Every structure is written in C-alpha cells, then in structure tokens.
Amino acid sequence: MTKYVIRGGKPLYGAVEISGAKNAAVAILPAALLVDGVCRIENVPQISDVTLILNILQELGADVRTINRTTVEIDCSHIRNAMVPDALARKIRASYYFIGAMLGRFGSAQVALPGGCDFGGRPIDLHIKGFASMGADVDVKGGIISAQAAGGHMVGTTVYMDMSSVGATMNVMLAAVLAEGTTVIENAAKEPHIVDLANFLNSMGASIMGAGTDVIKIRGVASLSGGSYSIIPDQIEAGTYMAAVTATGGEVLIKNVIPKHLECITAKLVEMGAEVEELDDAVLVRRSRPLERTNIKTLPYPGFPTDMQPQVAACLCLAQGTSVLTEGVWDNRYRYVDEFRRMGAQIQVDGKIAVIEGVPQLTGAAVEACDLRAGAALVIAGLAAQGTTEISQVRHIERGYEDIVRKLSGIGADIRVVVTPDEVKAAQVG
Ligand code: EPZ
Fold it and tell me: Which among 9, 60, 166, 206 could disulfide-bond with 177, CB atoms 3.0 to 4.6 Å apart, if both were Cys?
C-alpha cells in the first residue's frame, strides 16, 4: 500500500506552479468527441482522473497522442458510438459527460452510471431532465444510462436548472452545441470551469454566449472543426496550497493562477490572518500572525467553493476561538472529521454544520483519506501538526493533485512516499 509520511510543524517557503484545472479537463476532454478533426489541448493536468477520461476516449476509438507532459492531441473523426462500460464509468463522476457528448454527436448514448466522491446523494436527475427537454428518451436500467434522441438529433429548448448544478450545466451544453436550434440554460452554474468548457467549444466553432452568468445561450451549429486550446489553472489546487501555507505559516509564491478565480478563497484566508498579495498570474501568500476564527458557508461560484471546505477546516482547527463551517452544496461532506479528531482536532458535526474549537496544535497520527479533498486536507493537517502523520489511501489524492509530493517538497515540506511490503511483493511478482 502507498502512504504519504509527513513530519509536520515546519513553515512553508518557496514557489509552487499550479497545474491545469481538473474539473475543466474532465469536461473538455470528452467534449473533443464532438469535434470532427484534431483537438490540441494544452495545460492538461497529470492526474489519474484525466488518464481515465483519455482511456475511455481510446476505448471509443479516438486517436489520442501525447505530445508532451501536459499536451495531448485527440482526433475523434473515427469514434464509435459504443457504450462506456461500468468498469471505467464508475471510477469517476465526470464519466457522465460522455452522455452529453455522445448525444450531441450521435443523438444517442449508452454510459454506465458514474462514481465519484461519496458526499451522500449524488443524483443526476437534472442532467436527465435537461436531455429529456431537448427531445431525448432517457432510461436508467441495470446500472446503464441509455439515451436516444427522437428523430436522431437533439433539439434546442429552454432548460431551467432547479439547482445551479455544475455537471448538469456542462452536460446540457455538450448536448446542445450541435443541436437543431437554440438552447437556453436558465439558473446555470457559473464556475470558472464552465466558462473554460464554453471557451474550448467556441474555439472549435461552437456558438455559446453567457457562460459565467446564470443564463447561457447555445446556438446549434452543423459541426465543430479542430483547433488548439489551453486549459485554465486549477482554482482548487491553488486554494489548497494557499490553505497549506495559512495552516503552517511561512511565505509561498503560488504561480500560474488566475487571481480573480481565487477571490472567494483569498477573502476567507485573510479573515483568518493570512496576507495575500495578488500579482498578474500569481498570488504571494504569507502567514505569520496567529490564526483567527471565522465562519464560512460553502456556496456555488462565486461563493466559497465546497471543494475547499475540508482544506479550510484544517486551518480552522488551529485558529483561536470557535468557527462555524456550513456545507451549502453537499448533503454530507464531513466524512474526514473522524480522521482530524485522531490528530487532536475539536470538531462537532450536526448535519451540514461543523463547529470547530481551535486547539494550540494538532499531533501527527495514522490517518486515512476518504476522498480527494479530504485527503488534501489531511496533508495540510499533517504539515501543520507536531510529529509524524502517515496518510493511507492516497489514490484519492492523486486523482486531482498533480505531483503533490514533489510540489510540497519544493516549498520545504518534509513529505515522502512510502510503499509498504505487500505492494513491493506484488510489484516483484508483476
Ligand atoms: C462538480 O460536481 C465537481 N466535480 C465537484 O468537485 C464539486 O464539488 C461540484 O461540482 C460543486 O462545485 C466535477 O466537476 C467532476 P453539482 P457535480 O452537479 O457536477 C445536486 C472535486 O472535489 N444535484 O454542481 O456532481 C447535487 O446533489 C469534486 O473536484 C442534483 O440534485 O456537482 C449537489 O447537492 C467533488 N441533481 C448540487 O446539486 C443533479 O442532477 C451541486 O452538484 C445534479 C446535481
């Protein structure tokens, strides 16, 4: 088994480079399926979720060429309208983008139900409602989502999102770019990765207006041609490193970011005592004063992102006073709290609310990552704790953080990867 072993209690100093945005990449790569030609996509993060999406594209017959560490070329000219199997689809949430892309390209889709982090319910009713309103019959049977557009192609219409769902907004966009007529998404989600998907599709010849606002208009076009596109930097990866230096103290230059995307995170970290200096494509974060309590509620963009909730909780565990954290997006995103308690955190959870009593210090312990951002939060807690923390189930972390051990080591963290004997033996046999 692979673990991260961290010797904490050291402030972080130096500079770290942010990679391409995971939640943009996992939508933009399936969107290449809509393009009749070669898409060159740059600033692709080297993470296991992206590897999986590229595997699915290859399974469907796409020609995927790795140009360099962060650039791929994808040619879907000869892609097949085949099923995305359970063995691949269930590994991540974003596999459901193949439904919208296949409906858009072929007018039909068969994709096994998605997986992804467990936050209580993760329904896809808004996705299905969107596809149905565009003329598709959608059926979920035996773990497979089957969708068939009446007349063989999607038809533009107005889709009202009961909640501003990131996934459903992007999926309807994918189904609409080649549809007959115009689609209007009302109450659309506004996250940076939604704008990035729209910009990618427009660079390939789509006609999408209003992405980033709550009304997105997509005028169907006959086809999309190839082109080049570079994915935006990852807002949440950047926020995670900002939270790390806020928790440990020190000074870190976080490079290759869009400061505007970080405003909601910056505001809260500054309330807690961090100093954040915004540069053109970087932020300089330092924390030398004692951490102060604050209250945070996670909300859809431009509110404080739910994907930063566990990471900022790690900071609040060390803040003087009592903080109240409210999870405004997911039913249950506190599964990591028991692991924090092993390190001496004082947290009480009641439904969507966590009350955090700051403690003078956390103590290193053996802990287990239960999902992507919870794992990142345990890394932050380990960096700030006195003593040694061993984190297992690190595969969750590696789904969304490129080279996290190298990047943290580069800013002074004492963190290393340890592969335990059972894995070594298996490797020898293999
Ligand atoms: C995306 O998930 C992200 N994942 C999540 O990030 C992120 O937490 C979430 O957006 C919110 O920002 C990817 O982009 C791959 P939603 P998604 O649809 O699209 C409800 C990470 O850490 N809902 O915006 O699944 C849903 O239950 C991951 O990178 C429905 O009720 O989120 C939730 O309460 C974790 N019906 C709310 O809407 C639906 O059909 C927001 O979900 C869809 C969603």
Answer: 206
